[in-house]
Amino acid sequence: MNTDRALVLQFLQGGRKTAAITSNPLAQDLGGELLELDTERGVAVLAFEPPPRCVQGAGVLQGGIVATLLDFAMAFAAHAALAAAERPFSTAALNVSLLRPAPPGRYLARGRIVRAGRNLLFADATLSLESDGRTVATATAVMPVADA
């Protein structure tokens, strides 16, 4: 079983309020924390606090790190939406819009499934600095879903 899926199921069954994302080494390195999952709406809210090594020369998060945080949010939203069915998925297309510089700090990444077809999920996400709530980036993704 996918380790992120296992964490999602554990989170949902345990009625936990928050959980460190220990299922994925990259999410751990980025200080990932699972805050909220909604299986009916296909929503996930994650928190991240990327370490200083993720900051580029201009003093802001490197764009690839920002994209990664958004991708995690949409993937966890997909796991929530597919919680009742063990169907693997992947990100086939990822479009990221960097709206403003992302200074070091703690971020909230909100992902949701906008539309779920039989074989495709369409998702979007926002990334906001927790301290002021300003959105620094958005993303959309298309995720093919395999048959179980």
What would you say this structure looks like, in words?
The structure is a single chain. The protein has 148 residues and is of the alpha+beta class. The chain has one domain (3-144): Hotdog Thioesterase (Thiol Ester Dehydrase, Chain A, Roll). It is 24% helix and 34% strand. It is built from three helices and seven strands; from the N terminus they run H-E-H-E-E-H-E-E-E-E. The protein has helices at 3-14, 25-29, 63-81; strands spanning 19-20, 33-38, 43-48, 93-98, 107-116, 120-129, 135-144. It has a seven-stranded antiparallel β-sheet with strand order 1-2-3-5-6-7-4. A hairpin with a 4-residue loop joins strand 2 (33-38) and strand 3. It is globular, with a radius of gyration of 15 Å. The model has no long low-confidence stretch (mean pLDDT 95).
Report the structural category. alpha+beta
* Strands side by side in the biggest sheet: 1-2-3-5-6-7-4
Strand content: 25-35%
Low-confidence stretches: none
H/I helix tally: 3
The CATH superfamily label reads: Hotdog Thioesterase
| CATH structural class | Alpha Beta
